[in-house]
Here is the input.
Amino acid sequence: MFFKKSEKSGPVDFLIVGLGNPGKKYEGTRHNAGFMVLEALAEKMNVKINRVKFKSFCGECTIGGRRVLLMMPQTYMNSSGEAVSEAMRFYKLQPEQVCVIFDDITLPVGRIRIRRKGSDGGQRGMRSIIMLTGSENFPRVRVGIGEKPHPDYDLSDWVLSKFSREEAEKLLPAINQAAEAACIIAQGDIDRAMNMFSK
Here is the structure.
C-alpha cells in the first residue's frame, strides 16, 4: 500500500525520518536500518532523497494529501536530534507530526514495532531527538536487528556489523512493512499501522 508521488500542495506538514550513519563504511550495517526503510520508501514512491537541507538528505512527496519531507540525517546517529529539531523549527511542527524510524536490538530480525510515543529505549539517535526537542511524543517505527550474540559482545561492534545472508532475507519484508507503516502514520492513522504491523 504505497502512495504515488503527486503534486506538492502547501507547506510540509509531516516528516518521516530514518536514522543511520552516513558514508560507505556504514552501508548495510544494523544501525542503518532506518536509512534502509527510507530508501525503500523513496524507491516505491519514485522520490529522490538527494536534496541537502537540515543537515540531511531530503526528498518531498505527498501522502494522503499531506506534503511529507523524507529525511536521512547526515549528522551521525548520536546527533540525529540536530537535524530533526532544525526541520521541526523551520516548518513549525509538533512531535506528533514526525515519524522516526530506527533500529532496535531488543527485537529479532524481521520484526517491527510501532509506538505512539515513549522513551528512547537506549537508542542514542532517538535519545538525541528527545533531548533536543524536549518531547517523547514522537510516533516511531522500530526495526528489529537482533540481540547481541553474547552478553559480553561490544554493543558498538554489534550495531555496526552487517546482516548475515539469512538475516537479510528476514529483514527485507520488515523493511517494506516499516515503509508502509510510515505512510499510514503520515496519514494520521497510527492505530491502523499498529494493528497491522506491531505483533
